[in-house]
Design goal:
Length: 416
Amino acid sequence: MFSDRISDYFEGVAAKYLSAVDADPKRSNQHEIGGLPAAGFKQYLGTPSKDEKKRFDAKLIYITDEADAAETVDAQVTWYDCRYKKPHRSAEYKLYYPTNAVTELLNEGDFLLVAKLRDNSLLMVFTPAGSTIERQLRALFALDNVDSQFNAGSVDTLRLFLPLRLMLEDLGIETGHSETGDGAWLERLVELFGGEKFPPTSVFSKFARESIEQKVDPLADPDQAILNWMDHEEKLFRIYERHLVQDRLREGFGEDGADVDGFISFSLSVQNRRKSRVGHAFELYLSEIFTAHGLQFEQGGGKGFTTENNSKPDFIFPGFNSYHNPLFPTEHLHMLGAKTTCKDRWRQVLSEADKISSKHLVTLEAAISERQTTEMQSQNLQLVIPAAIHSTYTPSQADWLLTLSQFIDQVNSSSL
């Protein structure tokens, strides 16, 4: 169901850090970005004549590590020769974008990525320099060198595995699409689950784990096993979700489709279900892997399965009774938080088990910024990342990261 290559969605990409003229309209007549031709971007936008202006639909996004949601504006941008009034001078092509809620947030030095999508639209992402989203975009598009001039990236370098798809979907790029074979999967899903609503996550995840065609032994390779399970579940989920959502859309919302509030409520429920389900599935698959490796653990939530201040850690090793036993050696206790993506929420795990000074957090997020990983280290929080995602981190970060297999070995070696 999911494309394996970034090039199925993007034609080309370039990035730079904004100059004062780029960011501040008071320093120039209008919001214009120059320098794209030098990065080879003209091949994606065309060569307008002196009296021609090419317009593109564009999504402009400003996003920070701290914000709960990105500021997003849909607009039209213009690609033209800014010397059109000077017919005797050689062309100088610039990209004009109008003032809007995103451009009002821009600062000198911000990172800008401009990407041309296969649907002929543009994506323009602005973010503070050094942010996690900058690191992720640079890893995604192999942007090794970024400075004050546009540098071209690549759309052919990296498999679009689940963590990077989740990142793109946060930017409004829907990466799922139908493929040959989806119909057979849908037939099985409808036969099993009825075709009218989603089953519990535990039931759906069990089917996904057992039906996966690319088998990986969780004992031999837990890192690849959880990535394959999550990827396959996401594929099945989107197939089944598309079926359920299409049925609901056919019903319509109110008379003549005029129930806007009903439509918005339904749309939000779809988005919330996606986020909630992927997190629950992640914890379920981790539980399966820990059980396969014979680890003793308990998950937070029920009566007695809490720590100080009624906190509910995702995983406590070997369990909550041991945690609350004053005679149990603290060096044999481990706490693991689990978040498919961290963003700024990683700090939540710091207060979930006061007796454990060094905590662990497992995530599928790629290319977290060095600023954030340095802060994690200062807070005695150790990141656990499946091995295949380590390549999206800098060498110094990768030396510090643990794989899931290494975390399991640590728990095993410290058990009583």
